[in-house]
Amino acid sequence: MEVEGRECNSAIQSEEETMELRRGPWTVEEDMTLMNFIAKHGEGRWNSLARCAGLKRTGKSCRLRWLNYLRPDVRRGNITPEEQLLILELHCRWGNRWSKIAQHLPGRTDNEIKNYWRTRVQKHAKQLQCDVNSKQIKDTMRYLWIPRLVERLHAPPTPPPTGSSPTTSTTTYHHLPTNISMSSGQLVPPPPPPGTSIGGDYGGVQPENSSTGLHRTRLGRRFHLSLT
DNA sequence: AATAAGGACAACCGCTCGGAC
DNA sequence: TGTCCGAGCGGTTGTCCTTAT
Q: What pLDDT sits at residue A111?
């Protein structure tokens, strides 16, 4: 990219260097400034970009904001079962290589995948009372969650069940390690905290709030701007 | 209705790597 | 060859929202 270096003379630079940097959540005005600047000049050279755009942010902060939120091709919304499956498989292969994993999920950012992993997968690991990097959790992924997701992907779309538990599965897992027990297609971990479901994300099709049938979707708390 | 607890996600921090000089 | 700086990555923290009590 070509940042208009002539405009960023040393006087301006030294003035801005003494300026206090902003932190915390980005405002709509800052987003607009960043987006307009990138639309005009392209991305890259983040430190000088931040200065020349007049943003009181670090280059790092600008880069992160752009990559994780403002980029036009960034996908927002729930992680689909297909994406969950891919994340599980790729994590089995590469571990916490979030950016590498993100490359295989178009529109998803490493930050988003990392957050997904921490909030969903680590939660289940905690419920199983095992370390997220343990063999047990990896086996659980490989032999239970992934097959369930595959099953879920191949299953025709069905209306929400009325009586039977949606987490009930008829699939048999011939390779299930002995340290993972099954009951009606479910893991039998120590009792989870009230209101949570082991099968929720990985095998069951039940919404987050099964009592109301509502599926909570959130597209972030803040404005999402796009360059269209 | 108020509030505490937990969840989800945005943002920051520290470290490493690679290129320019 | 060594140093500096920008960029990227993974880990962690902070903030706000939802849900439960």
A: 86
Asked if residues A184 and A178 have their Cβ atoms less than 8 Å apart, the reply is no
Give phi and psi for A28, each to the nearest 5: -60, -40
Looking at A53-121, list the stretches that DSSP marks H as alpha helix, in order from N- to C-terminal side.
Answer: 59-65, 81-94, 98-102, 110-116
- Residues (109-148, chain A) with CB within 7 Å of strand B atoms: 111-112, 114-116, 118-120, 123
Q: What nucleotide is nearest A24 when CA is compared to C1'? A: B11
For residue A116, report the phi and psi dihedrals to the nearest 5 degrees. -55, -50
Give the Å distances, CA to CA, from A7 to A3, A17, A146.
9, 15, 54
**Å between CA of A73 and C1' of B2:** 42
> Over the stretch A143-157, which tens digit does the pLDDT of each residue have?
777 777 777 777 665
Q: How many CA atoms lie within 13 A of A35 on its CB side?
A: 17
Stretch A40-58: mean pLDDT = 84
Write down the pTM of the prediction. Answer: 0.68
How confident is the model at residue A52, as a pLDDT? 85
